[in-house]
Amino acid sequence: MNGTKKQIRLAKRPVGTPKFEDFSITESPIGSPDGGEVLIRNVYISVDPYLRGRLQDVKSYVPPFQLNDVIVSGTIGQVVESNSAHFTEGDIVIGMLGWEEYSKANEKTVRKLDPSLASVTANLGIIGMTGLTAYFGLLDIGQPKEGETVVVSGAAGAVGSTVGQIAKIKGTRVVGIAGSKEKCNYLINELGFDAVINYKEENVAAALGKACPNGIDVYFDNVGGEISDAVFPLLNKFARIPVCGAISAYNKVEPDIGPRVQTFLIKTSALMKGFTVGDYSARFKEGGAQLAAWLKEDKLKYEETITEGFDSIIDAFLGLFKGKNLGKQLVKIGEFAE
Ligand SMILES: NC(=O)c1ccc[n+]([C@@H]2O[C@H](COP(=O)([O-])OP(=O)(O)OC[C@H]3O[C@@H](n4cnc5c(N)ncnc54)[C@H](OP(=O)(O)O)[C@@H]3O)[C@@H](O)[C@H]2O)c1
Questions:
Q1: How many angstroms does the Cα of residue 222 sit away from the middle of ligand 1?
Q2: Measured in angstroms, how far is the CA atom of residue 224 from the centroid of ligand 1?
Q3: 203 exposed, middle or buried (CB, 10 Å; 0-12, 13-18, 19+)?
Q4: If exposure means fewest CB atoms within 10 Å of the residue's CB, which of 38, 220, 256, 292 is most exposed?
Q5: Among 114-118, 145-149, 151-155, 273-277, the least confident range
């Protein structure tokens, strides 16, 4: 295809909280797909906290971006040219694609979406990576049992809001910790959480004591830091702690030192286990099907914060660290053709 596409690249490795200037917006030719490739016009781009780790030159479960690389994340788009027997023009596909208007992708790296399962965007959220993270982290590691108390931090975000609802499906008492009054109201009024704590306005330790009169059996940790420090003294015997994320530490320049957890774990025989959703890739089909079924039965709800326009991608990403999103943060950069 003739013409040029805009792309967002890593310009500098951020020090502390990432800034707009750490990225650059460049233009390059769109080009055409080679054999076994498709050309995709990108429509929805997912921005995710874990990308912060990939901006740093450190070893992790995904390799870091190199300077000048186009940033890559979960993306949904539409095939505009196909040089693959498996795709035709107009197919709506999902894959790990660049922060760019058009992507060329090998046919093995993208898949067609099944429109009967849920809305298109749900594939980047509640039945996609973030929903699966909640599903496997909570059920496999957290193992919630009826009548138990489940606490989730980052509760109004994409993962946290799903965790709380699955915990309700399993018959537990659910306490959410989030960063604004609006988010807390949403968790109580829309998602049926039993109690909420606004960590920006309340003393988390005192509020947890009130909200969890029977202690805490499962703590789904999305944020780490001082919020998690307040949870450990309230753990019950044999508590389970799926460690999903530590967003409060992602932008710290100095090591994130806090109270040590060992004594709490020993006293309660608690299990604390880190995980990445990729650990469960062999079971994605099972998880996706269950999430889609709960969605159809109205047992799960989801919220999306969708910013519009290619030029809003960087700000949408930076907004995650300021709590600007309710539910899944996405960016819409185009329209699907009929
Ligand atoms: N292990 C895995 O495979 C996996 C997969 C997906 C995500 N994750 C992790 O799970 C967590 C949630 O991810 P998500 O995609 O669902 O993002 P999200 O929760 O939708 O968005 C991030 C939220 O984090 C909160 N936050 C930002 N800075 C914070 C701070 N300093 N202290 C406490 N809260 C803070 C903000 O909400 P408030 O307004 O409440 O502060 C913000 O809205 C992240 O830590 C992410 O890295 C892990």
A1: 6
A2: 10
A3: exposed
A4: 256
A5: 114-118
